[in-house]
Amino acid sequence: MTIAKIAPEYLLFGGAVLLSLLAFTVLILVPAISSYGRGWEKATVGFLSIFVLVALVALGVAAGALIVYNWSEINKILKDIGDIFSVVLPLLT
Question: Cβ–Cβ contacts within 10 Å for residue 14, how many?
């Protein structure tokens, strides 16, 4: 039985996800939960913190999908900006 090789990109993305979740837990979730004394308050603040995390991840995924979908137009704009800089930059020096 052979073990399939995992591409380095997947390892890097997985590591970034784990590091982000660890940072969220240590820097946001634990202090928020420890700020309250009652059980229902802790459950509520935990739910709201995770809800905000999910909302921000969804916004990031949507922004990334929008960039991928419109990449040809974005690339044209960046090329035009590069052309403008190649003309203007020698004039400034």
Answer: 11
Q: How many domains does the chain contain in total? A: 1
Q: What is the pLDDT of residues 44-83, one digit of tens each?
A: 999 999 999 999 999 999 999 999 999 999 888 888 887 7
In a domain, 42, yes or no: yes
What CA–CA distances, in Å, run from 64 to 5, 58, 91?
27, 10, 36
Sign of the C-alpha dihedral, residues 49, 55, 59, 65? positive
Q: 3-state class of 90 per DSSP? A: helix
pTM attached to this predicted model: 0.70
Structural domain including 76 reads 21-92
Q: What percent of the chain has pLDDT over 90?
A: 66
In a domain, 46, yes or no: yes
